[in-house]
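From the methods appendix. Each design record in this collection lists the tokenized structure first, followed by the designed amino acid sequence. Records were kept in a plain field format so they could be parsed without special tools. The example shown here is representative of the layout used throughout.

RECORD:
FOLD TOKENS (118 positions):
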């Protein structure tokens, strides 16, 4: 699960950075505001890569997805990209758990067959 979720978060890191560049063109927003918000979101993407295996990491990941969708109020394209990344996040969590369960089953099976052979 960690690999899939981390890959999604790193993809979001870049999308947030590019959205920050687009948001800088808005004359109503200061550069400091745009990069403070974008920088915090980008930092969260990287930080969540390390805690994604914990339940709180998944919850924070969902909060990040909601914030990414909400950023569409500033950069309208982010409504679409936010939904795409929320779907990727769901798939990463869902299928990542299934892969982890399958790996554990294979490891248990390999351990029991090794013990039987000895």
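DESIGN:
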């Amino acid at each position: 699960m960690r690999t899939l979720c981390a890959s999604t978060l790193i993809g979001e890191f870049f999308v947030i950075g590019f959205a920050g560049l687009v948001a800088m063109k808005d004359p109503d927003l200061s550069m400091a505001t745009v990069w403070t918000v974008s920088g915090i979101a980008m930092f969260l993407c990287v930080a969540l890569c390390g805690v994604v295996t914990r339940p709180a990491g998944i919850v924070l990941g969902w909060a990040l997805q909601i914030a990414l969708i909400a950023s569409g109020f500033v950069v309208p394209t982010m409504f679409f990209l936010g939904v795409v990344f929320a779907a990727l996040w769901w798939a990463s969590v869902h299928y990542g758990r299934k892969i982890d369960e399958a790996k554990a089953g294979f490891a248990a099976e390999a351990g029991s067959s090794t013990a039987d052979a000895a």
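APPENDIX NOTE: The chain has a mean pLDDT of 92.
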